[in-house]
Amino acid sequence: MDRWATVWAFVHVLSWATYMGGALVMEFVWRPAQQHLPPSQTAVACQWMGRRYRWVALAALLGAGSSGAARLVAAGQISLSPPVFGDQLALSNGYGRTILATTVLWAVMLGTVGLLSLVAHPALHVRMRSDMTDEERGAARSAVMKAIRRMDIVLRVDLVLAAVAALLGASLSFGGIL
Q1: By the 8 A CB rule, do 98 and 178 touch?
Q2: 3-class state of residue 85 by DSSP
Q3: What is the C-alpha separation between 52 and 168, in angstroms, rounded?
Q4: pLDDT tens readout for residues 65-78
Q5: 90 DSSP 8-state letter
Q6: Can you tell me the distance from the alpha carbon of 145 to that of 65, in angstroms, rounded to the nearest whole number?
Q7: What whole-number distance in Å separates Cα of residue 149 and Cα of residue 159?
Q8: Using one digit for the tens of pLDDT, what is the confidence trace for 76-110?
Q9: Which sequence spans correspond to the domains of the chain?
Q10: Would you state the pLDDT for residue 14?
Q11: Using one digit for the tens of pLDDT, what is the confidence trace for 3-62?
């Protein structure tokens, strides 16, 4: 194995481990911890966690995608000249189908990070003005709690996607699972 293949393999494993580890921490550490916080503290803590998590998740996914592509190029399975895809990446091959499914999952996870960053997370940034009525404050609190629940659902879906992607990736050593 040459030096670059080792570097790409390291980056690939580290990137997927970081992403999967982040998803596990969000579900099994952060979610239980936030249940014991008052709603106002939960919202602020979610804002800080979300700001950090999105960049770590994005970096991990970009690292996994770029290193995965580099590994396929190094293995001669992707070329810049026709035919672009090697024999192992044919959809008639289990390895090719597994690579395709993993790539689709990777793109969907990239989309969930975007959804969290651009939609779910900004909904937590509700400011309570001093001139708000009790009804307006109640509505604002309700909107924040709804945003937190939405975020929880997206994070759970993301964890399932990451687990399936990890299973598919592990199966590649044996020719793919699909």
Answers
A1: yes
A2: strand
A3: 27
A4: 999 888 888 877 77
A5: S
A6: 34
A7: 15
A8: 777 776 766 766 666 677 778 888 888 899 999 99
A9: 3-174
A10: 93
A11: 888 888 899 989 999 998 888 888 888 778 777 877 667 767 777 777 788 888 889 999
For residue 113, the one-letter residue type is V
Cβ atoms of 175 and 95 within 8 Å: the answer is yes
AA identity, residue 59: A
Distances (CA, A) of 116 to 23, 34, 83, 104, 111: 13, 18, 38, 18, 9
Q: Contact at 8 Å (CB) between 175 and 163? A: no
Q: What pairs with residue 85 in β-bridges?
A: 78
Tell me which amino acid residue 67 is: S
Using only the alpha carbons of the chain, give its radius of gyration.
20
Give the H or E element holding residue 149. helix 134-171
Predicted model pTM? 0.75
**Closest alpha carbon to 67 in 31, 18, 133, 108:** 18
For tokens 């804002």, name the residue.
47
Number of helices (H) and strands (E) in the chain: give both, helices first.
5, 0
3-state secondary structure of 78: strand
